[in-house]
């Protein structure tokens, strides 16, 4: 996890601000009481736990009509064993932790039945899905315990790896930390016709990467420090601490979501080999981008292909975050690989600047729970911006340095996919030239995006550090 300042500097700043009376104090970090990844690993090894990477189930579509999909999601409380001999109180959809993968085709009519089996209210937001406001699952669409919400929408976007998670005011961060999150795949003619790895769970693997801290008794330690929101000292992948995956000598596609509350990930392979990025948040890039590392801020996704055919049987290759191993691949068997890494994946139609009818500026300010956008905190009863349906706009987003604390913010807009025009006036990296719904704004940076508002309704835009969002770094846009 990337921390930008050392704790003592931050504590001094916080103490000063607290004295001035602005801040509700957050828990100080107490590293001594937390379980380290090495400790957890040793306990699990001793207990001979099978620590292979969990693969979430594909959610059954109960409607026989191929063009109409009916899915049931049940948010519920559960118990999960991350550390042998202990049980962690968790939440999941249709299970104990995380949720199944919802898989739909472009053009499908999708009906989802969300039965809230929690003993608290929740919402389900389809992050990255282009829906109208009523089906978006934002904070104003509470599902009370024991009740059902039945959103229904038609998929009108290109193939992509999207996701879903709760968005209720005041509990988004803790519900996500407890385990409420799942993937939402869209397929289309392009994704079906490309000869890339696409056998779910075989050579097309979902990876939900998150960080968590554990107390000695196995319970989650939800720690928010003032600057960064809730970070953890262990990285978990699909709900397992440092799991492994046995692979054949073939190409493997990984669909990665940064599902953490507040931590950025900087992913690379321990052998420093290249991999190919083929998709960003909202779908395929035009061409695969060869790279050695992948940066993902909270909420962002990417798809990559790793070619394991070049390694000898018996080789272990690890996916690492900065310097820490988070998932290891054991190259076990020969494979008969007929997939390829094509030169061209799709055509991304660039939104022309000349189509924009308005420019808006959003300044992300402050830190801790003093965050705001353009000087205002979120208010459910206030519409901050109004747009006409079908309009295209340029949004300039800046991250303002706060009290000597340089902090980046992942900025997300509901209900749309946008394109990045520039970062501080410069062209974005190749991996950011496709569709995006979340963009990381580095400290003191100005990022320009171009976005077309196709769907009507009220939508959120916010920082995807969930504790920042909860503290008011969020606004509402009405598309009418
Ligand atoms: Cu990932 Cu407002 O959400
Ligand atoms: Cu969203
Ligand atoms: Cu933020």
Automatic annotation (TrEMBL):
| Pfam families associated with the record | Cu-oxidase (PF00394), Cu-oxidase_2 (PF07731), Cu-oxidase_3 (PF07732)
Question: Which family is this protein grouped under?
Answer: Belongs to the multicopper oxidase family.
In the UniProt record, what gene is named as encoding this protein?
mco_1
List the transmembrane segments: 7-26
Query: Any keyword Transmembrane helix?
Result: yes
Asked whether the keyword Lyase is assigned, the reply is no
State the Gene Ontology terms under molecular function. copper ion binding; oxidoreductase activity
Which named protein is this? Multicopper oxidase mco
Plastocyanin-like domain sequence ranges = 81-189, 213-310, 365-479
Q: Which InterPro entries match?
A: Cu-oxidase-like_N, Cu-oxidase_2nd, Cu-oxidase_C, Cu-oxidase_fam, Cu_oxidase_Cu_BS, Cupredoxin
Record key words, sorted: Membrane, Metal-binding, Oxidoreductase, Transmembrane, Transmembrane helix
| PROSITE patterns the UniProt entry points to | MULTICOPPER_OXIDASE2 (PS00080)
């Amino acid at each position: 996890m990337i921390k930008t300042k050392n704790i003592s500097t931050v504590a001094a700043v916080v103490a000063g601000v607290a004295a001035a009376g602005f801040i509700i104090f957050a828990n100080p970090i107490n590293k001594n009481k937390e379980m380290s990844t090495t400790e957890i690993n040793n306990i699990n090894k001793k207990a001979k736990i099978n620590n292979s990477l969990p693969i979430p189930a594909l959610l059954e579509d109960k409607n026989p009509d191929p063009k109409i999909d009916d899915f049931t999601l049940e948010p519920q409380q559960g118990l999960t064993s991350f550390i042998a001999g202990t049980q962690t109180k968790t939440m999941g959809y249709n299970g104990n932790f995380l949720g199944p993968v919802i898989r739909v085709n472009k053009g499908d009519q999708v009906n989802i039945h969300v039965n809230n089996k929690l003993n608290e209210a929740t919402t389900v937001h389809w992050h990255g899905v282009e829906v109208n406001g009523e089906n978006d699952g934002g904070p104003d669409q509470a599902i009370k315990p024991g009740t059902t919400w039945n959103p229904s929408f038609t998929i009108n976007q290109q193939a992509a790896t999207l996701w879903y998670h709760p968005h209720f005011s005041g509990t988004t961060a803790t519900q996500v930390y407890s385990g409420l999150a799942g993937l939402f795949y869209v397929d289309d003619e392009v994704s079906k016709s490309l000869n890339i790895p696409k056998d779910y769970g075989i050579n097309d693997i979902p990876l939900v990467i998150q960080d968590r801290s554990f107390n000695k008794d196995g319970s989650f330690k939800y720690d928010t420090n003032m600057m960064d929101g809730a970070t953890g000292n262990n990285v978990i992948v699909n709900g397992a601490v440092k799991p492994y995956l046995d692979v054949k000598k073939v190409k493997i596609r990984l669909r990665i979501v940064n599902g953490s509350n507040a931590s950025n990930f900087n992913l690379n392979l321990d052998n420093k080999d290249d991999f190919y990025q083929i998709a960003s948040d909202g779908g395929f890039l035009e061409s695969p981008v060869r790279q050695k590392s992948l940066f993902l801020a909270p909420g962002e996704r990417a798809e990559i292909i790793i070619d394991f055919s070049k390694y000898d049987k018996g080789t272990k290759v690890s996916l690492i975050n900065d310097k820490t191993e988070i998932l290891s691949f054991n190259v076990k068997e020969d494979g008969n690989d007929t997939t390829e890494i094509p030169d061209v994946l799709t055509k991304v139609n660039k939104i022309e600047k000349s189509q924009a009818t308005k420019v808006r500026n959003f300044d992300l300010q402050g830190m801790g729970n003093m965050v705001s956008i353009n000087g205002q905190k979120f208010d459910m009863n206030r519409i901050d911006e109004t747009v006409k349906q079908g309009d295209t706009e340029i949004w300039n987003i800046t991250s303002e340095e706060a009290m000597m604390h340089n902090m980046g913010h992942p900025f997300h807009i509901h209900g749309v996919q946008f394109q990045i025009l520039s970062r501080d006036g410069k062209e974005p990296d190749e991996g950011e030239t496709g569709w995006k719904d979340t963009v990381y704004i580095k400290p003191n940076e100005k990022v320009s995006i171009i976005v077309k508002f196709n769907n009507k309704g009220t939508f959120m835009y916010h920082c995807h550090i969930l504790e920042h969002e909860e503290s008011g770094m969020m606004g509402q846009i009405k598309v009418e």
